[in-house]
Amino acid sequence: MQKAQSIYAILDDAYQGQSPWNLKQIEADLSSPNNDYFFAYDQEQLIGFLSVQQLVGELELTNIAVKSRYQGKGIGAQLMTHLFDYDLPIFLEVRASNSAAQALYKSCGFAALAIRKNYYHNPVEDAVVMKKEGRNDR
């Protein structure tokens, strides 16, 4: 699957050779009927993506990544605007040390909800659980 390979390349670049997802996981995620993907392009080159999983009564942002040379240019924020089409509460987890991502999420209306201890591996780190209310939940 060409799209899965392109997504893997973005993750591998954004995470400096340490993609948290392998190709099989990406292929399975792309084929799930409960998941939606949104893409950012420069010309015809895929440079970023956002993925969400629709659950009963809520949405989970499962992944967002932008190639490193395109980071800091508002592409992540543009991808996040796709979330506003959903009228559901949206949840996500982010590494406690990832202050840039947390700032982006806060600017999009997310608020910290809880800490998940030792959620991430390689390296082991806490996750900050964040939530954005749906339009009708405010």
From TrEMBL:
Boundaries of every N-acetyltransferase domain copy: 1-135
Gene Ontology CC annotations of this record: cytoplasm; ribosome
Catalytic activity of the protein: N-terminal L-alanyl-[ribosomal protein bS18] + acetyl-CoA = N-terminal N(alpha)-acetyl-L-alanyl-[ribosomal protein bS18] + CoA + H(+)
Enzyme Commission identifier(s): 2.3.1.266
Signal peptide: none
One GO molecular-function entry: protein-N-terminal-alanine acetyltransferase activity
Domain of life: Bacteria
InterPro entries: AcTrfase_RimI/Ard1, Acyl_CoA_acyltransferase, GNAT_dom, YpeA/RimI_acetyltransf
Subcellular compartments: Cytoplasm
Protein name, as recorded: [Ribosomal protein bS18]-alanine N-acetyltransferase
